[in-house]
Amino acid sequence: MYMSGLRVLILEDFSSDAELAIAQLKRDGIAVAHWRRVDTEADLRLALADEWDILLADYHLPCLTALDALRIVRERECSLPTLVVSGTVGEELAAALIKAGAYDYVHKDRIGRLGSAVTHALTAAELRATHLRDEAALEASVVRLARALDGAVHALGAAAEMRDPYTAGHQRRVAQLAVTIARRMRLPEGTIRGLHVAALLHDIGKLRIPGDILTKPTRLSPPEYSLIKMHAEAGADILRGIEFPWPVADIVRQHHCRIDGSGYPEGIPPETLLVEALIVGVADVVEAMSSHRPYRAALGVAAALAEIADGRGTRYPPDIADACAAVFTEDGFQFEADGKAPTGEWGTNGRK
Ligand SMILES: [Fe+2]
């Protein structure tokens, strides 16, 4: 590195000017380990294959300009700091050179500035390199955190499904359909991300429901169904303790609410329902009706879509109902097969 002597590449057609620059650097107390002068594009490209600490570029050479040199340096994606040392550059051109990536411009008549300009350029380049390294490290840790969050969400979802083998994969398939509907509706990516997490966890409240009720193969009694209905609030309670950047707890709480005020929990004004919750609600109904249950065979996608069409504008928002129908009929949506037993969900009559 330049502490033990600077490696200087000079783009200059006059060797006397190049020697002048090197002499000036030495006068300014900058040790020069070695330097090389080039004056054609081919030589510059060849020289850039070696390691340099700084490029001093004259502006106007017979074959190329400093702007060309800056472009070539940029093309190589090398961060070689470049100073323009020239006698022919006006203010406008100097601004263009800085914009193109030059660190500074030193007029040949004021070559005494060269040492401090080089020192500043090297310091700035070092800071920039550190900043880029920090940024890359930050990005990597954001990616790691996002992966950890994904892992935690999937683990939580799987834990909820373990209580009831008939619901294995249900949340994942609901999430798959919900995200597809949201994409069709062109919702913002951030909203879709939160919707995905909430859909993967929407039945997590089952953890608080007695296992024998969850797996009961026959019709539920009214008290049993009341217990089942608690899973929406219970899920929201569990998730409220996690600081998600999305309203995951509220989406989970509202996923059985309908826009006509039916569903549960009661008392949530329909106009305050989150679009994500309404999408999870529609996807939940479709997935549940499409799947096999211990107490009934799968009703099929056609029946599920008929239910959504029947409730369009009453139970389900028209835009969500339409997007749901379109992803099946126009986009050929299919639930992912996971080889596990299909899933369960509860409807207003106790079971769907
Ligand atoms: Fe649910």
Blueprint of the fold:
Layout (H helix, E strand, L loop, with lengths): L5 E6 L3 H13 L4 E7 L2 H7 L6 E4 L8 H10 L6 E5 L4 H9 L4 E4 L6 H49 L7 H15 L4 H12 L10 H4 L7 H19 L7 H7 L20 H16 L10 H10 L7 H12 L23
Parallel strand pairs: 1-2, 1-3, 3-4, 4-5
Helix pairs in contact: 6-7, 6-11, 6-13, 7-10, 7-11, 9-10, 10-11, 11-12
The structure holds fe (ii) ion.
Features:
alpha/beta; disordered C terminus; 5 strands; 352 residues; 5-stranded parallel sheet; binds fe (ii) ion; 13 helices
Summarize the structure.
With 352 residues, the chain is an alpha/beta fold.
**Residues in helix, %:** 40-55%
Strand count, sense and closure of the main sheet? 5 strands, parallel
Distance between the termini: 71 Å
Q: What is the H-and-E element order? A: EHEHEHEHEHHHHHHHHH
Structural class: alpha/beta
Structural shape? elongated
Number of strands: 5
The number of helical runs is 13
- Specify Rg, calculated over alpha carbons: 33 Å
As a percent range, the share of strand residues is 5-15%
Named once each, the bound ligands are:
fe (ii) ion
Summed over residues and divided by their number, the pLDDT gives a mean of 89
Strand order across the largest sheet: 2-1-3-4-5
Q: Which residues sit in consecutive blocks of at least 5 with pLDDT less than 50?
A: 339-352
Question: Can you offer a commentary on this structure?
Answer:
α6 (170-184) crosses α11 and α6 (170-184) crosses α13. The chain has helices spanning 15-27, 41-47, 66-75, 91-99, 114-162, 170-184, 189-200, 211-214, 222-240, 248-254, 275-290, 301-310, 318-329; strands at 6-11, 32-38, 54-57, 82-86, 104-107. It has a 5-stranded parallel β-sheet with strand order 2-1-3-4-5, with helices on both faces. Helix content is 52%, strand content 7%. The protein is elongated. It has 352 residues and is an alpha/beta fold. The structure holds fe (ii) ion.
